[in-house]
Amino acid sequence: MQTVRQLVDLRAGVAAWRAAGERVALVPTMGALHDGHMALVEAAKRAADRVVVSIFVNPKQFGPNEDLAKYPRKELADSRMLAAAGVDLLWLPPVEEMYPEGFATSVSVSGVSEVLDGAHRPGHFDGVATVVAKLFNQVRPDVALFGEKDWQQLAVIRRLVADLNLELEIHGVPTQREDDGLALSSRNVYLVPEDRARAVALPRALGVAERAIAKGGDPEAALAQAREMLAAAGFEVDYVALTDADTLGEPVEGRPMRLLAAARIGGTRLIDNIPVNTNDYG
Ligand code: PAF
């Protein structure tokens, strides 16, 4: 696996594959890799001839009171995992390569960025859209893969790609979970054992609400029950919401729906989401 830190080297590596007619996949990450990321890499290998993984802890998507300084950084372990998984190129730009002196551009996707996490983390999705647009221009992949755990992020990126006529496919990869159902996340390392045990309430609360709604129950009552389950487990709830799966606006009769939640336990903010499978109950 080639590891490159300068744009000129990244471009040279990718250009050689393009010249040979190879299809290139990009898996953007912030490192601290876990099996969720490795599922993206495996999906990338199936979707393309060459796989580029980027690791960049993007300061623009962290708010002033968020965990940028303490965000887990594990460059050596990450690099070994990626090499063992057969990744072709690791793109590891330093901050000054990504945002050189004088950098002044921000990409903002209105609507889908403004609700849910966007309302609780002002500026977060502008930071994500800006860095992802840069990564797409730097790597010029044929396909880029993102985890469905960050469902709103995926919706923002799909909107960005459609609006700017970017010529690449976006593939969402299903959330990977621990045996008890907790979604894999780099932030799970912050959970002390007691909070880790209680964190399972998040997927459980979503599952309870999903079954009630899918069976035709009152959505507001189901969401309230999920909030109560989370509070009883010690979570402070940012939101539990039922939305249209694509726009993240109000659900629309006959269109796919998604249940999304964000909540804090012991100072760690966790997010999760699941589809609402109304077909399961006919
Ligand atoms: O999902 C992430 O890890 C990040 O938000 C991303 C897409 C790599 C952009 O920094």
From TrEMBL:
This protein's UniProt keywords: ATP-binding, Cytoplasm, Ligase, Nucleotide-binding, Pantothenate biosynthesis
Gene3D superfamilies: HUPs (3.40.50.620), Pantoate-beta-alanine ligase, C-terminal domain (3.30.1300.10)
GO biological process: pantothenate biosynthetic process
Binding site for (R)-pantoate: Q61, Q153
Gene Ontology molecular function: ATP binding; pantoate-beta-alanine ligase activity
Reactions performed catalytically: (R)-pantoate + beta-alanine + ATP = (R)-pantothenate + AMP + diphosphate + H(+)
Binding of beta-alanine, residues: Q61
Pathway as given in its UniProt record: Cofactor biosynthesis; (R)-pantothenate biosynthesis; (R)-pantothenate from (R)-pantoate and beta-alanine: step 1/1
Subcellular location: Cytoplasm
Enzyme Commission number: 6.3.2.1
Main location, first listed in the record: cytoplasm
Residues binding ATP: 30-37, 147-150, 184-187
Family: Belongs to the pantothenate synthetase family.
Quaternary structure and interacting proteins, as annotated: Homodimer.
Role according to the record: Catalyzes the condensation of pantoate with beta-alanine in an ATP-dependent reaction via a pantoyl-adenylate intermediate.
NCBIfam families: cyt_tran_rel, panC
Name listed for the protein in its UniProt record: Pantothenate synthetase
Organism: Sphingomonas naasensis
